Amino acid sequence: MSKHSIHIQNIVRELPDSPGVYQYYDKDGKILYVGKAKNLKKRVSSYFRQNESLIGKVRILVQKIVDIQIVVVETELDALLLENNLIKKYQPRYNVMLKDDKTYPWICIKKEAFPRIFPTRHRINDGSDYFGPYASVKMMHTLLDLVRQLYQIRTCSLNLSAANIRAGKYKVCLEFHMKNCLGPCENLQTEEDYGQSLVEIRNILRGNISSARQHLVGMMKEYADTYQFEKAHIVKEKIVLLDRYQSKSSIVSPSIHNIDIFSYVDEPTAGYINFMKVINGCIIQAHTVEIRKKLDESPEELLLLAIVELRERFDSDSPEIIVPFKPDVELPGVTYTTPIRGEKKKLLELSERNAKYYQLEKHKQLEHVDPERHTTRIMAQMQADLHLKEHPVRIDCFDNSNIQGSYPVAAMVVFTNGKPDKKEYRHFNIKTVEGPNDFASMEEVIFRRYKRVIEEDQPLPQLIIVDGGKGQLSSAMESIDKLGLHGKVAVIGIAKKLEEIYYPGDSLPLYIDKKSETLRIIQQLRDEAHRFGITHHRKRREKGTIKTELTEITGVGESTSTLLLRKFRSVKAIKEASLSEIQKVGGLAKGKIVYQYFHPENTENK
Fold it and tell me: Are 533 and 463 within one domain?
């Protein structure tokens, strides 16, 4: 508190232990941040304690605060609603906001005689009914097409007042002759009959398809009972159409009625929230948003913000909300449900898949539009997932290769900013280990690599990955400790079978989400190290095998073997060559020795 003004200290000291909203102002009188609190004194005081755990952005915010204003309210819910309104009004720099640059369409049932039904992006407070908004324009047009196939609703913009109809101002148009309209303009349809269709249309737009279907079934039976079979058949076709639409849109039991689903996917810099509204087992609305973090907000805070905003935007009054975890503030008349199994759990998983798909699409766009920001995001994600002190800008990954101890080699591959840096790849021939001993080989390679790094004053990587479990990791740490690098560089091991991440001194592994970018990059590193090591091992084995077969011949050295292999390309070709051909390359004396070695029965050139 010593760094802050006496004015701030006095305000904090006098704050009440009540729920409310606090506002931070800078020296120019501009609002920096608006927050809610269950206890104003405890919440605001937490910003001004000497707390090293505060992230950098919060420290910068606190340094700019020169004044604090509060509003005391009755409940935490009141504080939440007031905070939401103030953020929308002032748009403070340090507050997260659910931004959307789109205007979503609605379906309007116009308040007029013989109401029209049409899509619009502008809500007018004229008493008309609006349904939506629809995040999917395709879904909206599907509903409109369904309504127009089921009911004969006018599409003209004529003023069909009773006086105008009585005066005979209008004549029926082509829509009437195509049987898409019943001609209310010439008083061929009553407002009562037209209104009955609107009741059923409103039910369909609200997702209550069963009510509209029951009415149509009743009409079909009534026509059939009075032997109006053509009309009964027309109504039957409408029922089939309605059933077909319901079967396509229904994903769970119709007993799941009028609920909202919110899922949350977190990453270090943002949260992704998917919203779905289900009526009678059908999804009638779905939307996903990204909320950028400003002050390291918790998932609970971001989820609550999205629930309040999206329910208001989509005009939802569902009494039940399915969530992955319970938000901090209760909403009046609303029950939170966190399902463990069953159909509600399936709905939550479906919502989460939509959020992850949206997240993936955002990342792909970001990679093309802003590669630097994309890289920073990946580094932040890896730092958070692996509990590192800093971004793993450079990662070294090691793998051993040998066949029953023969020709033991190791490989090191390097990723910089999450991508292969091939000019930094290195091969190692194991020098001090005899026989198949992966642990000792790993210890040797790590020691040799970082001893050289220290001697040449090269920068250390932020992360070292060892391909293997606890044994390989322990061996690597032996060398890290000998070199005095313990605590200066992070070291982890990855076990192949279950993709377990091991840390030094911890017997329990860390399991990362199988679909996460962090695990994908670690797997790519591991696979690349394995490929690079196997390639080197194969070349060394082939070279060693060939040299052994030729140099086993007494009197033939490495230089002669190299000349022969360069000319004939393989030992098999040397075996099939004549004496004169071999002597042309290896010389008369040594050529004869090689020929006689492969052809002991022939001692002369034939």
Answer: yes
Spell out where 221-363 has E strands.
259-267, 270-279, 282-292, 320-322, 335-337
Assess whether 111 and 245 both reside in one domain.
yes
CB atoms within 10 A of CB 592: 18
Q: Fill in the amino acid letter for 322.
A: I
Instruction: Tell me which of 341, 358, 375 is where a domain ends.
Output: 358
Cβ count near 401 (within 10 Å): 24
Nearby residues of 437 by Cβ (< 8 Å), 6 or more positions away: 405
What is the end-to-end Cα distance of the chain in Å, rounded?
102
Handedness of CA 127, 129, 135, 140 (dihedral sign): negative
* Domain membership flag for residue 590: no
Cα separation, 495 vs 537, whole angstroms: 22
DSSP H or E run through 426: strand 426-429
User: Could you tell me the pTM of the whole model?
Assistant: 0.56
The residue whose two tokens read 């509060």 is 70
Q: What is the pLDDT of residues 327-376, one digit of tens each?
A: 888 888 889 999 998 888 888 988 898 888 888 888 777 767 667 877 88
Q: Which two tokens stand for residue 45?
A: 């005081």
Residue 356 CA to residue 263 CA, distance in Å, equals 10
- How buried is 570 (Cβ within 10 angstroms: 0-12 exposed, 13-18 middle, 19+ buried)? exposed
Give the H or E element holding residue 354.
Answer: helix 343-369
